[in-house]
Amino acid sequence: MVLDMDLFREEKGGNPEVIRNSQRQRYSDAAIVDKVIELDQAWRKERFLLDVFNRQKNVLSKAIGEKMKKKEAQGTDDNVDDSIVSKLDSLKVEDLTTLTVAQIKRLRVLLDEKINETKASMEKLENDRQQSLVQIGNIVHHSVPVSDDEANNRVERTYGDITSRKKYSHVDLVVMIDGFDGDRGTSVAGGRGYFLKGPLVFLEQAIIQLALQKLLEKGFTPLYTPFFMRKEVMQEVAQLSQFDEELYKVGL
């Protein structure tokens, strides 16, 4: 779980220095905190611009509505002076009184382009911020020993029998119960091949039966489908001539 962004924002009551110290205590890069702050500030500026552009879109729509209500000519020339375009983020209705409907619609197209550019910029900044944010660990509690060696971890409490005993791997256990044959499995199937045998065969079948029973209890219907084999493959393991009329087969 990543840290809340408000922890990086001083104006929201956050304290970035606490996060930097936490990173240092983890022996991790503290500069990543400043990178997150920088990306967040850039994202918030774009967010502010997007809000401004959306408000301006309402201003343009209102101006068009008033002109249509007055039945003013829409005009055919949609060229707009650069001095107007440069104020796209701060235009007021009164600034648009001398423009035709066609010109205002042109401004709205330009504004839509700005909105799309801003959204794309916000998305990139947010992704970059998130990628940096996930590199920052949770804030280290004051009681945690500061060390880059796990051997220095402190034991908080113990419970039950903590006597050290020899631990057996899965391989140790299956050998101890004579439950698999790795040599013959490898000779037949190649590297890492193995045969289950004895108690492990029964264990596997028991697990299968348990799984089927649980699925049946949940309303599933067990199915056992037929096995299909191409004739040329089966010929390699059996003489088909005597069974040709007896076997079920699918013609291709």
TrEMBL record:
Keywords: Coiled coil, Ligase. The keyword DNA-binding does not apply. Signal peptide: none annotated. One of its GO terms (molecular function) is ATP binding. InterPro entries: aa-tRNA-synth_II/BPL/LPL, Ser-tRNA-ligase_type_1, Ser-tRNA-synth_1_N, SerRS_1_N_sf, tRNA-bd_arm. Gene3D superfamilies: Bira Bifunctional Protein, Domain 2, Serine-tRNA synthetase, tRNA binding domain. One of its GO terms (biological process) is seryl-tRNA aminoacylation. The keyword NADP does not apply. Residues 2-91 form the Serine-tRNA synthetase type1 N-terminal domain. Residues 108-135 form a coiled coil. It comes from the Eukaryota. This is Serine--tRNA ligase cytoplasmic. It comes from Trichostrongylus colubriformis (Black scour worm). The lineage of its organism: Eukaryota, Metazoa, Ecdysozoa, Nematoda, Chromadorea.
